[in-house]
Amino acid sequence: MNIIIGISWPFANGELHIGHAASSLPGDVIARYHRLKGDKVILVSGTDCHGTPIEVKALQENKSPKEIVDECHVSFAKDFKDFGISFDLYNRTDDPYHKKFVQEQFVKYYNNGYLEEKEEEQLYCDHCKLFLADRYIIGICPKCGAEIKGDECEKCRSLLTIDEVKETKCAICGNKASYKKNKNLYFKLSNFQNNIKDLLESKKSLWRENAVNFTERYLKEGIPDRCASRTLNYGIDIPINGFKDKKLYGWFENVWGYVTASKKYAEEHNLNWEDYWKNDNSKIYLVHAKDNIPFHTVIFPSLLLATNDNYRLPDKIISDEYITIEGEKLSKSKGNYITLRHLLENYPVDAIRYYFSINNPETRDFNFTYEGFINSINGELLGKWGNFINRTLQFINKSFDGKLSGNKVDEVIETRLKELYDIVGNDIDNGNTKDGLSKIFDFINYSNKYFDENEPWKLAKDDVSKCEDILFNCCNIIFNVNNLLKPYLFETTKKVEEYLNSNINSWNYQRLEKVDLLKEINPLFIRYDKSRIDEERKQLNFDA
């Protein structure tokens, strides 16, 4: 099967934080799983280089937007790589390949009658001498009263029109906004109301509950037409006469990045990109945080349909809930803002991947705490998985010189392992990566109990043959559980394969053929002192 996995594109206006890490990780787990299954996978994302947040940051730092974008792109690419996100292509939206393709699609919308010219009163800052759009605007949400930036309310998740926003001001200077006539192109999103309704009904069982609920709400309220042009200095030019001085609204071009990045990769590797995007024997995952839901369930499918080019619409929407930090909303101004880079420089990458996988906010917000993070390393990775491996392999090296002659397989264990492949694989395929990992660790708990109850340290004196059989089964468990963990823990699983001198390259149960261990077995994880928790929390500076 051909698999497309698109991870949402981070804005080039700051560092990657733990929210990006948590929402991106399921995409990588799914990709690694499908590669083990033998599927043809293309995992893509990239840096979102256009939009008002970038222009605002550039103005604030007295830099050009390109300088901001270039710095962020290098940083993002390195962070994702070090985090183990196995992109086939990590692109950027200012790539000429992307720009050209997007402009061609925009012309198709226009020719197909899905763009409408409108002259209207638009918010304008007399002090800054610029039209205000998106993050250039601050105001009050008319539905919940929260302070918002642009036309999206992060608190109640409303997707607004600018004229609905109350008490509008310029985000740059803080002055009250006025109105000035401006001509724009509106995309007739309302034309696709029934299409989106049909898509939702056909894919409801494959989408996260939050994506279903939000999309149902948008449909109930009636999907409004959206302004697709912006009066900005930086972005993708609109290739339509009369509008060549304007730029494409970011959400009408960046979601095309899933197509352009995978198309570019396919062409570079002699693959047919249409086998992925226009084929029944394919599957498309879109992975993101819940604030991006309407753009992936409403706007992107509508754009695909507006081309009349028979694109396959997204199959699986993997939309995570939010992350809080020590009980507080993630906030730079308060200091409770943890970058992915900080964690990568101070902790093993698999410890980070484990913590965000086992606590993935699939159905509700997740509260990141350093106590929980450190305890997960000490208790689960070191105390359960690491301990099982270490005491099994160290015992074999010490008592049997790293080799076993016994190889009698426990049929109960073998059956459970075979079942685990199916159960965990089904969870990952459905985007429930947290559940899959939880079930693996349930089996690890069972494995530790198996070791303890059989007391191989006693059998080594009283019944060597039985001792070897017990230890062989423990090694067979390690062999297969390690394979099950490959989508999650890419670094430590390589070490375990080296310890065993054996590996599996598919998502199938395989019986370990022999035990012939590496002589030097080192612990997979180190124990962190509890004082580390207070040290980390102090850096968050909650009192700021």
Structure description:
This protein is an alpha/beta fold and 544 residues long. It has 3 domains: 2-104 and 251-342, HUPs (Rossmann fold), CATH 3.40.50.620; 115-230, Methionyl-trna Synthetase, domain 2 (Beta Complex), CATH 2.170.220.10; 370-516, Isoleucyl-tRNA Synthetase, Domain 1, CATH 1.10.730.10. Helices cover 47% and strands 15% of the residues. The chain contains 18 helices and 19 strands. It has helices spanning 18-37, 52-61, 65-82, 96-111, 193-203, 209-221, 257-268, 274-277, 293-306, 340-346, 349-358, 370-400, 411-429, 433-454, 456-462, 464-484, 492-500, 531-540; strands at 2-7, 40-47, 89-92, 115-125, 130-131, 137-140, 147-149, 166-170, 178-187, 226-227, 229-230, 247-248, 282-289, 316-320, 323-325, 328-329, 366-368, 403-404, 515-516. Helix 12 (370-400) packs antiparallel against helix 16 and helix 15 runs antiparallel to helix 16 (464-484). The chain is elongated.
Domains counted in the coordinates: how many?
A: 3
What characterizes the major β-sheet? 5 strands, parallel
User: What value does the average pLDDT take?
Assistant: 93
Amino-to-carboxy terminus distance: 52 Å
- CATH class of the largest domain reads Alpha Beta
- Unreliable segments (pLDDT under 50, ≥5 consecutive)? none
Quickly count the helices: 18
DSSP summary, beta strand count:
19
At CATH level 2, the architecture of the largest domain is: 3-Layer(aba) Sandwich
Strand order of the largest sheet: 3-2-1-13-14
Broad structural category: alpha/beta
Shape: elongated
The CATH topology of the largest domain is given as: Rossmann fold
Range of helix content:
40-55%
> Can you tell me the CATH superfamily of the largest domain?
HUPs
What gyration radius follows from the Cα positions, in whole Å? 26 Å
> In percent, how much strand structure appears in the residues?
15-25%
